[in-house]
Amino acid sequence: MRLRSLTLAAASGAALLAAAALPANASGHPGTDTPASAQEGTVSASALLAKVTSCSQISHGTYKTDDETSATVPVCGKNGAVFWKADMDIDCDGRRTTDCNENRDPWFQADTAFHQSDGKPLKAESLPYVVVPSSSGIWNYSGAGVKGGGVVAVVHGNKVEYAVVGDTGPTKIIGEASYATAKALGIDPDPATGGADSGVTYILFTNSKVSPIESHSAAVSLGDKLAKQFLANN
Q1: Of 225, 230, 229, the residue nearest 210 (C-alpha)
Q2: If you write DSSP's letter for every residue of 152-163 in order, what string do you get?
Q3: Can you say whether the dihedral through the CA atoms of 170, 140, 117, 34 is positive or negative?
Q4: 169-181, pLDDT tens digit by residue?
Q5: Mean pLDDT value of segment 224-232
Q6: pTM of the entire structure?
Q7: Rounded distance between C-alpha atoms, residue 39 and residue 41, angstroms
Q8: Where are the beta strands (DSSP E) in 103-211?
Q9: Tens of pLDDT along 5-17?
């Protein structure tokens, strides 16, 4: 995860120009685990959002959505889940691909906190995953039952995309997901200029784990099951 500040943006001007010179990959990604639908599973966005209208704060403080913003975002607790409402910055970290590399992403890092079953970093271009803040005095994700590979329902507008917990970020910033997550939700996935300023809800189902972590179809199957339980228990 990158600290997206005005200072970094200015410093990365040369990288942005290089990225602009490269053609975007307009075609879909091959493979059955590539997200193909903006609405995954059988639980609607409106049904999920109806359960997260109020916040029982479990974090010991609030998070910023970007390096230069104020801290206003709490982590909230529900039965079987934690959630937050924030923006979406684009994480392109992990394995180098056509759209996720040093030329297209000025903040690129060739690793993720959690790895595939073969030990390799995750592939942000094709795997929907979410970034959680590294543990701090504000909140300890692992202590709340959130694990690498845990299932996340990401809601934007009337769309639901199931993702996994795939990376960790700064201790004071929240609201980031992989290139593939953004693309499936209709959010501009460009790692340098894309993302959403607000309106994204992240519902993380506690004590869940997709195996293998890189199987998006497994995340959708488990996510749909857990979403139904979430509706029934809240």
Answers
A1: 225
A2: EEEEETTEEEEE
A3: negative
A4: 999 999 999 999 9
A5: 98
A6: 0.86
A7: 7
A8: 129-133, 151-156, 159-169, 176-178, 196-205
A9: 433 333 333 333 3
